[in-house]
Amino acid sequence: MIIVLKPSTTEEQLNKFTNMLKNDYQVKVNKWDGVHSTVLGLIGDTTKIDIEYIDAQDIVESVKRVQEPYKKANRKFHPENSIIKINDEISIGDGSLHIMAGPCSVESEEQIVGIAKDVKASGATLLRGGAFKPRTSPYAFQGLKAEGLDLLKAARKATGLPIVTEIMRASHIDMFENVDIIQVGARNMQNFELLKELGKTNKPILLKRGLSATIEEWLMSAEYIMAGGNNNVILCERGIRTYETFTRNTLDVSAIPIIKRLSHLPVVVDPSHASGKSWLVEPLAMAAVAAGADGLIIEVHNDPPHALSDGAQSLTPEQFDGVAKNVFALKDALSKVQ
Ligand code: PEP
Ligand code: MN
Closest-lying ligand to the alpha carbon of 249? Predict the structure, then answer.
């Protein structure tokens, strides 16, 4: 962290400020005297320093971070890739490609068990399905809630596929005890109280990127979970809001290699919510795999025109089968050139 002091700073103010930095934050303070102002360079762990607090001090002209404000999610302090183990067969981030597939919403036992069997046959290794749904309209289908969780468990029993489903509030954590991966949806990426509570569990968390979140904000949300002691975080790029209206969101493909550079956490891509259109799912999934994604999360419905949510972006099981084949073929081909 670099702090530029105002020219009017007295020796006494400088000493008081420097001692406060050393004592409160255990950092080393280097000082350079320029012609008009003094510059301080802070060395050590500056993640706990509130940059706005420093900026608010009378003697401070400006302040700039030169190190990322996240530590646990930072590759600098953890050079090896994190591998998130879901069960004995599935580890996300180990170089293999995993597809989580299933409907946007769990609608009935027949629907979720049928889709689970179909996507498993096509190579999906995890089942997705929403039981608690964050909908833009309060009048839209809100999910089957606790019953939806039970139906997901029935589908897991029938197929062996681990289940991924979204949590919306911290008071539901006990209900999610038996879920394999807890999804934090885009709308809750900055629900810090929820993130803190999830940090106290040891569940794998699929942390979706917020609708308009920067990569740094997204990593800071991962940091919230990890700061509580839960390092089992999987990041999910699901498109961000831009000026483009043709697609539901804009898939930020560059986020994949950027996350890989900045962090050791695995990245999964959701081409369904990124595009909002079923015909765009395959090309976006291919782009994600080519860019280094560790997994994909894809919406699949047995009858998309009658889906209770997100029908337009849902693939039929047959379409999913074709997409999965091409995606795995691409992954295979890439492993030969990388
Ligand atoms: C979902 O996965 O169905 C969902 C609501 O996703 P997101 O939070 O990315 O919008
Ligand atoms: Mn959806």
Answer: 1
